[in-house]
Design a protein that fits this description.
Distance between the termini: 37 Å
Radius of gyration: 18 Å
Strand order of the largest sheet: 1-8-7-4-5-6
Shape: globular
Largest sheet: 6 strands, mixed
Structural class: alpha/beta
Strand content: 15-25%
Number of helices: 5
């Protein structure tokens, strides 16, 4: 299910079409959409629904495999501009905390592994965290995902404690502070 196109995007597309038809050069903004840096607490925390999905190599990953770790669970797709824009920040975050019991699980929605592999090959830094495939979007339904990107922070005991709807700058100091606190807790 794709999100409806915003009026701003429709107006920008119309303007680009008019300029192109007129033979004028069209320059689109190089920067992606602005990203937030807040996480909304889930009150009360809920047990994270389990799942088992394949990665790009066909290796299976279950949420239970990561019990005892702090998890950033991200639902995304290559066609989603904020999803694409937040990916480098997720990689920086993962590299910063991976040796302390932190993992990023990026669940791609509806797309083919070959398409995702081609997309990740175009990034400045290839993501080193697991990229899993939810081809029927069944896991996202269990988590109540209504739009992309949507992310959840799951604590070491398997409880969903934060949610983020929309793109995030995941290595922003406010998010780093939250994760530092979670990682400093008992493992």
């Amino acid at each position: 299910m794709r999100r409806p196109i915003s009026n701003r995007c429709k107006h920008l597309a119309s303007l680009c079409l008019v300029l192109a038809v007129a033979g004028l050069p069209v320059a689109l903004p190089a920067q992606g959409p602005d990203l937030s840096h807040t996480l909304a607490p889930v009150e009360p925390p809920v047990t994270a629904p389990g799942f088992r999905l394949a990665d790009m190599d066909g290796e299976m990953h279950a949420l239970a495999d990561y019990r005892g770790k702090v998890i950033l669970l991200n639902f995304w797709a290559t066609w989603c501009p904020p999803c694409r824009h937040e990916m480098p920040a997720m990689e920086r975050l993962y590299r910063r905390f991976r040796d302390r019991g932190f993992v990023v699980l990026a669940l791609n929605q509806w797309e083919d592994p070959d398409l995702v592999f081609a997309y990740t090959g175009d990034l400045d830094v290839f993501p080193s965290f697991p990229m899993l495939f939810d081809p029927q979007s069944s896991v996202s339904q269990h988590y109540g995902v209504k739009g992309l990107p949507t992310s959840f922070v799951i604590d070491r005991s398997g409880q969903v404690i934060y949610r983020a709807i929309g793109g995030r700058e995941f290595d922003h100091p406010e998010i780093l502070q939250i994760l530092e606190g979670l990682l400093a807790g008992p493992s």
